[in-house]
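Posting for a labmate who doesn't have an account.
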Amino acid sequence: MKKTVLLLLIALNFSSCEKDDICDAATATTPRLIIQFYDFSNPTVPKTVSNLKLTSIGITDGLPFSGVSKIEVPLKTTEDTVTYNFVQNGGDTNATNDNIDVIQFNYSRNTIFVSRACGYKTVYTLNSPNGVVLTDNPTPDTFWIQNMTIETTNIETENEVHLKLYF
């Protein structure tokens, strides 16, 4: 009788256990803005960018990119705007040779519950008509970014290109 009661208590104890809440790495989280670079003279051909660094307030070292035609850029989850300096360097360490174009992203945010394990994610919608604003460096130089097109204003996944830059 004691064994039966003990087995029953053990069985009840295990039946009340819950599966561990671990967020699967494949679960979509807050997406980054996907930017693809294209050749200005041949707009259907992706172009590799070299010696590019993105800087912004709060990013001390910048985000370096080289040898890629597509980059992922984080947007702020606590503000409706972020400005990046797209610093194109000629391949040397002399900062005076940098060509800086400034892009401001203006968007609205929506926080979505993913799951108990993963928590929340933020999705974005670029504002219309000023969702992406290109300006030159405060110390004017020539634009290295010649044109841009917004492919989609909704930034919900990282599975598609959101912005195309032509240089």
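Reply:
Got it, the structure tokens are right above this. The first strand starts at residue 33 and ends at 39.
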